[in-house]
Design a protein that fits this description.
Distance between the termini: 34 Å
Largest sheet: none
Mean pLDDT: 92
Order of helices and strands: HHHHHHHHHH
Number of domains: 1
Length: 205
């Protein structure tokens, strides 16, 4: 049964309860990695662009793994953000192929490009849960998962617009909390559309 948007957000808030500091820390860590890449790009543009292309897939996979772990109450360490580098080649190939397919669809019109991005949106989650899967198999599975769910996923993004406006008011600092909230909600969306409903982990003292 598909969870409503409010239910997905409620599940995210429940997962984040007691984990906000860790969740924000993971996001800040990703920002720092981005800042380092930006500095390299400023000093050595060609090298910076190359580094960005090579590591973006690993960073994306690591962030998804981290926030999926929070959503499932697996208590992942902040260092999980770096876990994508353990699948560096696959993460890069997935980043490249998803970017290529999305770009090719965008050449037709903007709308087909958006639909393509929605179609491939679950590929990193699939790779995280199935590290032995092939790149094209992960993309194909994402396409299957998103059949009939692309509009739901699109509207889910729209439900955060009000929060995004509020987050931008204090010099954008609110995004330190909004980004993890959105990411964990996305993780719950993935678990919902794949039929996985994790039971809350027992509290430990």
């Amino acid at each position: 049964m598909n969870a409503s948007y409010s239910e997905l957000r409620a599940r995210a808030r429940d997962s984040l309860r007691g984990n906000w500091g860790k969740a924000v820390g993971g996001f800040v860590l990703s920002l720092l990695m981005g800042a380092v890449i930006g500095l390299i790009n400023y000093l050595l543009p060609f090298l910076g662009n190359l580094v960005s292309i090579l590591v973006s897939g690993s960073i994306s996979l690591g962030l998804i793994s981290f926030y999926l772990g929070i959503a499932r109450k697996e208590n992942p360490p902040v260092s999980e953000v770096f876990s994508g580098f353990s699948l560096f080649i696959k993460a890069f190939c997935l980043y490249f192929m998803v970017g290529l397919f999305t770009f090719l669809w965008t050449l037709l019109l903007v709308i087909p490009g958006i639909i393509a991005a929605l179609r491939y949106s679950q590929a990193y989650f699939i790779l995280r849960d199935n590290p032995d899967i092939g790149i094209m198999a992960a993309i194909d599975e994402s396409k299957q998962i998103m059949k009939g769910n692309k509009w739901r996923y699109f509207v889910l993004q729209l439900t955060f617009i009000g929060w995004a406006i509020l987050a931008a008011i204090p010099c954008g600092l609110g995004f330190l909390w909004l980004a993890p909230y959105v990411s964990v909600t996305h993780a719950h969306f993935y678990d919902n559309v794949t039929g996985r409903f994790p039971a809350p982990a027992p509290d430990s003292f």
